[in-house]
Here is the input.
Amino acid sequence: MTTIGGTSVQQLAKEYGTPLYVYDEDHLRMMLDTYQKAFQTSAFETGVLYASKAFSCKAMIRLVQEYGFYLDVVSAGELVTAKQAGHDCSKVFFHGNNKTPEELAFARDCGVGTIVVDNQTEAERIKEVYQDSPYKVHALLRVNPGIEAHTHKYIVTAHVDSKFGISFLNEEELVATIRVLQEADNVCFDGIHAHIGSQIFDKQAFREEIAKLFAYAGHLKETYGIEINTINLGGGFAVRYTNADAPIPIKDVCEAILSACEEENQKLNGQIKRVCIEPGRSIVAEAGYTIYTIGTLKKTPNRNYIFVDGGMADNIRPALYQAEYDAFLDGKETMKGEVEYTVAGKCCESGDILIQKITLPKAEPGDLLVMKTTGAYGYSMASHYNKLLLPAVVFSGSGKTRTVIRRETYEHLLSLEED
Ligand SMILES: *Cc1c(COP(=O)(O)O)cnc(C)c1O
Here is the structure.
């Protein structure tokens, strides 16, 4: 029998029902602690930002705050969550390729510390919004250094036609955007930001990113007299979804990043003062599990289906980009795998398959199937398709459990509908 954070899967299912998202809080704390300790150096001021889009709720934000993290938000909704959780808004970075004027004004009113500017139009908007602001906001410019990290093509963001940031190839626009920010009242332009992809296994990708960003900072100074003191390298650190994945330990990634930064900074005579990273997935993914109840088994000519009581509505990643997951049957962990199964959800889509192929001991209706590593982009990408109710989210740590997001009810589901 498996336990998560000291409580058995069976007990969790019994107490909270299924489908259920469960986070091992001890694991979350370990990840936060690891990042905080590993991303330190005497050579720079460092900052670790939690990319809250991976999993955003008040309990998670509070946990992150406890460990001294900065926070990334991409919308007013994520910002409201941070604010209501009591996160210090001066430690919030506001990202996004199309922030609305209302969102920017809201960010100003909340006292958001840093805006990561995506394009020139947005820079002009920021100039306007902050004209009479009682305090200064920091700004970074999102740039596209044109590096493709080796991962699934749908989640690569830094190719030349990416919708994010301004490409190094569009230098005129890039410099013009920085000029707008430099000239704006109450805006303090600090530097550049890039995010080269997701689920990146290769340290070399980050080294290339670092080399390009530092060299570009030197180039901007030399050619245009633009002073850059901050470089934000983004996130994208890989996690283990299945045994085929072998991510580099976070401690090693942090050390490799910092030593590459130090090396590049020597070439710039110490121009860069502050380095940031923005992990999302790698903090929450492996701490998260989804517990389903098996309802039915069905045999077709070529497949043995397991039908579970959730599916693409609570985890869109397999359908969206063929993401792979591992799972086990609670109580049968030590039994030999006998049958090759396909795990399917209950939504009206043939593509509602959670796991294409997995060998498990013989399953029966009523068994609990636990999917591993569902902590990132699961709840945050969940939908109401087929009007399935959003599952509850439970934190389980040191043998104690607590609901952090309640299970939806039919009342919630219909709460916005006019009679
Ligand atoms: C998504 C994203 C992150 C986090 O990526 P992970 O793969 O979850 O680590 C960080 N920064 C930016 C700008 C992002 O878009």
